[in-house]
Write a structure and sequence with these properties.
mainly alpha, 1% strand, globular
Length: 345
């Protein structure tokens, strides 16, 4: 049985207006690409092994805080109430990817990089922001922690093979070696550093300092790194965006339709299996969200920092924040209508 867990995660002022900051950084990046014509060449030239150094630094700073969420001790509790965990894994690794690739093929024929962008987003279960959404929705936070820890562990194993498989059935050639390298560099390395640094810092400064001082600080650092990544991406791709704004609108269609389908599926299945609100809402939130950081990182590693694929994955980020925040309020509305009728675990 899950026990109640007090969550420390809150949506602070900076996080609350994240969609606004995202839009501002996108706009500033486009402006920079026009007023400083050589900026894209200067940024693109600073790379090692085909990976942009500034982007690589920002992406690491984005990924590292998420890796601090893994709690191996919580994974031992999987057998106590497995139903919501199994439902979430099925949605993350089966339903969402199949919906994503199907919609990409339907709405984006002939746009290979945009199809891959949708595949990268739909195949990456979230491990960070869902802690915030679960807190706001007043869901079962112990289930939230177990699921995010499990997602962090499974994404290392499943992400690269799943993306390669879905790209293959879409008849798109993808560099599987770069795909594997991107997973090792942008997930494996931050995960190992996260585990080592967490253990060291807890032993040195204590759990209370780590949870209430260090994690919030690096969490804010991750958001700043995210915004800087967007600024660089859009400064590099400003000309492409101005010449082809239709591409961003086009890739938004399967992303938004995908959200509607996957959220609806998760709402329906949690009601059919008779979950209670606190477990049902966490299952819906985690099962419907994506790990946009790794999607962006992988798109950059495979296609380059100035690619259409990289831009496509940023649109996943742009839409996910307002969609998930809206889902939190919609779930609370459904709770008032007794949508979930099961007994709490």
């Amino acid at each position: 049985m899950y026990r109640a867990v007090e969550a420390e995660k809150k949506l602070n002022t900076f996080e609350k207006y994240l969609p606004l900051w995202i839009a501002i950084c996108m706009l500033l990046g486009i402006v920079l690409s026009q007023v400083v014509p050589g900026i894209s060449e200067a940024i693109a030239s600073w790379q090692v092994g085909g990976i942009s150094v500034p982007i690589g630094i920002f992406l690491f700073l984005m990924m590292y805080p998420a890796m601090l969420n893994i709690q191996t001790s919580e994974l031992k509790k999987l057998g106590k109430a497995p139903k919501p965990i199994i439902l979430t894994l099925f949605s993350n690794w089966i339903i969402a990817p199949l919906v994503g690739v199907s919609l990409a093929q339907a709405f984006l024929p002939g746009n290979e990089q945009l199809i891959v962008a949708v595949i990268l987003l739909s195949s990456s279960p979230c491990t960070a922001m869902v802690l915030v959404w679960g807190y706001l929705a007043e869901g079962n936070q112990e289930q939230n922690i177990i699921n995010t820890s499990l997602n962090t562990a499974t994404i290392i194993v499943f992400y690269a093979p799943l993306v390669a498989f879905l790209a293959g059935i879409s008849a798109i050639a993808i560099d599987r070696w770069l795909l594997l390298i991107s997973v090792l560099v942008f997930i494996g390395a931050p995960l190992m550093i996260g585990i080592v640094s967490k253990r060291s810092l807890v032993n040195w400064k204590g759990t209370d300092w780590f949870e209430n001082k260090y994690r919030p600080a690096v969490g804010n650092m991750a958001l700043v790194a995210l915004l800087m990544t967007l600024l660089v991406l859009f400064s590099l791709n400003g000309n492409v965006m101005l010449e082809h704004p239709d591409l961003l609108v086009l890739v938004s269609i399967p992303l938004l339709v995908g959200f509607v389908i996957v959220v609806s599926y998760n709402l329906l299945v949690t009601r059919v299996v008779n979950l209670a609100y606190r477990e049902g809402v966490i299952t819906v939130i985690i099962g419907s969200s994506s790990h946009f950081e790794i999607a962006i990182a992988t798109a950059i590693a495979i296609y380059g920092v100035g690619s259409i694929a990289a831009l496509g994955t940023t649109m996943g980020l742009f839409w996910e924040i307002p969609v998930m925040l809206g889902l939190v309020y919609f779930a609370k509305f459904l709770r008032g209508k007794d949508f979930w009728k099961g007994n709490p675990m």
